[in-house]
């Protein structure tokens, strides 16, 4: 089973070394970069298997689809730059012998804060390993979704989500993410939204639920400062989305009441 890891980067100097260290088994690693200036590319070039291609960022889906076009093996391992394969998962991937009907593999994640693993998180399982010719990415809110027809099997071992970029970078991203998420929620047909998105669409329920859900249902209450940090991040992200939704709805209602010029 020949696999090419694909990594999307932009100023990931705090993360890229750990991500690439766990991919030493790969013969070729494709990085699609959108203009890093912080040393990410210099760090990546220390790994001899890395091939860097450049593309101006317009959307996550287009960036990933461009990356897929660079893959020459049947299988691709699609990773964010803050993903770190567990050693067990790397060994599991190398030992796979998929039957022709299997199109992809899904894995679960262990979320880390400051390098410390949390008991639980809101980060969902994701298809990360799949036949490159069978997959295509679609934009969805501030992120992207893989469209893959066919049988998907679970992997037994995990990937660590371990983003160590500064908090200011995360805060800066939330306004952009909230804008894209609000546009998606307000424009998508209601039947096309999942449960989480329908809760968000209320404009008030998600912020009320997310803090107790993260702290109690996911166990972050028992992870000390790291758990509280993560739970408060999730709360702030939902608050910003809710504010964006409420603001757009209020503006729309105001426009509807304003009489047109004669």
Could you describe the 3D structure shown?
The chain is built from eight helices and 13 strands. It is of the alpha/beta class and 262 residues long. It has two domains: 3-161, Alpha-Beta Complex (Spore Coat Polysaccharide Biosynthesis Protein SpsA, Chain A); 167-257. The strands form three sheets. Strands 3-2-1-4-9-6-12 form a seven-stranded mixed beta sheet. Strands 5-13-7-8 form a four-stranded mixed beta sheet. A two-stranded antiparallel ribbon has the order 10-11. Strand 10 and strand 11 (143-148) form a beta hairpin. The N and C termini lie far apart (69 Å).
Explain the layout of strands and helices.
Blueprint: E1 3-9, H1 16-21, E2 29-33, H2 40-44, E3 50-54, H3 60-68, E4 75-80, E5 83-85, H4 87-95, E6 102-107, E7 109-113, E8 116-117, E9 126-131, E10 135-140, E11 143-148, E12 151-154, E13 159-161, H5 167-187, H6 195-201, H7 205-217, H8 224-257
Parallel strand pairs: 1-2, 1-4, 2-3, 6-12, 7-13
Antiparallel strand pairs: 4-9, 5-13, 6-9, 7-8, 10-11
Helix pairs in contact: 5-8, 7-8
